Write a sequence for this structure.
């Protein structure tokens, strides 16, 4: 996600990132960034500081655990240190070379991948271990196909959000070529049935008509 009110810089970043294989979203002010984040959570944010409305320094602490690379013309070392200790994972000074920025972004994704490989996700009594790729409800294992596992993992990484069909297809397509727009509904239907069978009839996934799918709280 690019958060920058400079259209020229934003367009240049979007073009370079898209060519590098990243899916890009945009926000042109701090306030707009928070509205966009309420709809979808990016894997990383590029944050300018001089923004209309909420300044970048005000937006940073509201981005939660999203890795943030600050991109700013401000060069004061004390200000850099304050931002890095306040939640930013990196700081790039304008003007910058796009190759260096892409390298810094790649580093953050490698670090995230390393952490993800040993991550354990939980939702109610549902547990997913990304290291062993094991899924269980309570003490009972749930046997899933590769595609079903990838769908469930994505949903569990976004437990409070509706995940759109296009986002599911986009994020799991590289590892699960058998999942297409026409077969997605079937894969999710099988996944829901397997979870219900082990979970005593409990439905862990619900469809949001016309949008996508989300995890279903027990009291929902």
């Amino acid at each position: 996600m690019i958060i920058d009110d400079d259209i020229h810089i934003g367009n240049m970043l979007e073009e370079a990132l898209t060519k590098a294989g990243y899916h890009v979203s945009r926000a042109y002010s701090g306030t707009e960034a928070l509205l966009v984040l309420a709809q979808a959570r990016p894997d990383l944010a590029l944050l300018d500081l001089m923004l209309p409305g909420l300044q970048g320094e005000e937006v940073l602490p509201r981005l939660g655990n999203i890795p943030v690379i600050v991109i700013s013309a401000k060069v004061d070392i004390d200000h850099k240190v304050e931002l890095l200790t306040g939640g930013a994972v990196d700081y790039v000074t304008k003007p910058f070379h796009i190759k260096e920025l892409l390298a810094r972004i790649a580093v953050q994704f490698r670090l995230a991948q390393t952490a993800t490989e040993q991550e354990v996700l939980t939702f109610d009594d549902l547990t997913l271990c990304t290291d062993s790729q094991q899924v269980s409800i309570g003490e009972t294992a749930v046997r899933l196909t590769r595609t079903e596992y990838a769908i469930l993992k994505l949903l569990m990484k976004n437990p409070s959000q509706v995940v759109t069909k296009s986002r599911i297809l986009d994020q799991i397509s590289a590892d699960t070529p058998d999942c297409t727009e026409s077969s997605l509904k079937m894969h999710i239907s099988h996944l829901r049935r397997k979870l219900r069978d082990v979970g005593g009839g409990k439905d862990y996934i619900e469809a949001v008509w016309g949008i996508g799918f989300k995890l279903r709280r027990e009291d929902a």
